[in-house]
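Sample 3 of the quickstart, ligand NAP:
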Amino acid sequence: MPTAKILLQLDPDPQISVFDSVVAVDSGVDQLFRHGGVSADQVRDLVYGLIFTRSLAELKNSAIFIGGSDVSTAETLLKAAVGSFFGPMRVSILFDPNGANTTAAAAVLAAGRHHELAGAETLILAGTGPVGQRAARLLARQGARVRIASRKLEKATSVCESLKAEVAEGTFLPYAVSDEASLTAALAGVAVVIAAGAANVQLAAASALSQATDLQVLIDLNAAPPVGLEGVDPMDKAKQRDGRICYGAIGVGGTKMKIHKRALARIFEQNDLVLNAEEAYEIGRELELGRVVIFGTTASSGTIQRKTGRTAEPRSAEQGGPADA
Ligand SMILES: NC(=O)c1ccc[n+]([C@@H]2O[C@H](COP(=O)([O-])OP(=O)(O)OC[C@H]3O[C@@H](n4cnc5c(N)ncnc54)[C@H](OP(=O)(O)O)[C@@H]3O)[C@@H](O)[C@H]2O)c1
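Result:
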């Protein structure tokens, strides 16, 4: 009898994400061990329960999902989980708190379908939240210049500094956007805008967007009205509006779900993966191009080493690629 696929769901929230549990079950997980209200100091023993119970050959059938609404707290769980591993005693981890990684990956993939990202001038409105910061990281790794807008210049500047520490080769430029004039200035020369603001907050009026003559791709991640970019419908998926390509939150969400499910499948293929935003993006590329990305392995200390994913043979339709984008 094959060993059951066990997913240990670690969530810092007292109420564990039902969304993440449903996606896990729908992705073929046999047994879901759901732990909520988890703090970093509890992670090691939970991980030990997972890695000491099966043979090395069977460990790839055990994996961890780290979620939760507070992304920075979830990051402490990730660090603790990776720090619990030693030698071959490890399992793969999917890290997607609040859907931040898969959503950012799907947004950047959407942008890249319609505009060359290398050298592109891009703007992330409300780019200081978890989704915006991850989208910024991914854009910069593709060679785009990234403007980060916030209501407060200090906040945008601080986020740009921490992004630069993560992506040394990246160009991050802080912008304060608090009215139509500052928004127009931030949009000047921008080809791709991603609105990553909180739910129910409009970040850009249609009048300001229409004045941005270089703008070609508009992506809004806020589905809850009012949406972030006036005139973009949440259902838009590569929808042409006034000669521009528009994506709404639900239009992006289809790709996000595919990445989430594929990532869940990947963590049961080997026992040494840590799938973060960059890997989510590579998995999205894999789905679009029909090629398998082979990731490097993780470090045994609390830090996570990332090696550039490389592509292998195209996948067959049965294996899942390419997805309809
Ligand atoms: N489709 C999906 O599956 C999916 C998954 C995850 C998230 N999302 C969506 O993606 C978006 C970003 O998520 P997130 O978690 O990164 O967002 P967040 O942390 O809640 O907010 C992002 C930024 O929005 C700005 N903001 C907050 N309240 C505001 C207000 N009243 N007026 C103007 N700006 C305000 C803040 O920027 P400043 O303070 O710097 O101005 C904040 O850093 C959300 O709309 C979320 O619903 C979608």
